[in-house]
Amino acid sequence: MDKWIELVKAKMKELRITQVVLAERLGMSQGGVGHWLTKRRQPSVDDMNRVLRELGMEFLEVMVVIREPDTSTEEGLRLAQKYNPYFRYPVSDWHEVGEVREGDAGRYELTDYHAQGDAFWLVVVGDAMTAPTGLSIPEGMSILVDPAVEAVPGKLVIAQLPGSSDATFRKLIEESGQHYLVPLNPTYPKTLYTEQCRIIGVVVQATIRF
């Protein structure tokens, strides 16, 4: 909500649109718009999208989000996140994902995550990461992969197994000094992580649209 308000206010200032003008475009009172922009009332997703449309901006989407915390302290990055809260990354394909970044005829998706590397989206296929309880990332969810994030035990990763050009989505864990790629679905077997395995990137965000 805070980012939506910042985005709307910044765009209104850029276009020199007052609350009165915006309210007229929306067919509502200035007070109603003011309540939204001061957080006295919570607009619905449809209303948020109506406002963005009137300002000539992309639609927002309702998302369930799993994200890596941003630990950067650089002033420039903080300002970029404050005034440009959305970033665009390409949707890739599971085949040869380590080399292909454009995927899907140049399709892109927006997010407020500021990637450390050349991040890209994948759409989850299959139920290997669908868990009966706890964290579950079912088929159809979009996952954002950042190749520059360190892959340490406990992270969800995209990996490439020896002899395969396709990528696989698993959780990296450590047991008795060994590393394994483990599915969240307990009906699937875990795989020993060896030097021949390649970590393509760490999953930093997962979203699903309603």
Instruction: Describe the oligomeric state of these chains in a short phrase.
Output: single chain
- Give the name of the CATH superfamily of the largest domain: Umud Fragment, subunit A
Q: In percent, how much strand structure appears in the residues? A: 15-25%
Architecture of the largest domain, according to CATH? Ribbon
**Percentage of residues assigned to helices:** 10-25%
Mean pLDDT: 81
SSE string, helices as H and strands as E: HHHHEHEEEEEEEEE
Content-based structural category? alpha+beta
CATH class of the largest domain, named Mainly Beta
Number of helices: 5
Under CATH, the topology of the largest domain can be stated as Umud Fragment, subunit A
Shape: elongated
**How much is the radius of gyration in Å?**
20 Å
Stretches with pLDDT under 50, minimum 5 residues: 62-67, 98-104
Describe this structure in a few short sentences.
It is built from five helices and ten strands, in the order ααααβαβββββββββ. With 210 residues, it is of the alpha+beta class. It has two domains: 53 residues, 434 Repressor (Amino-terminal Domain); 142 residues, Umud Fragment, subunit A.
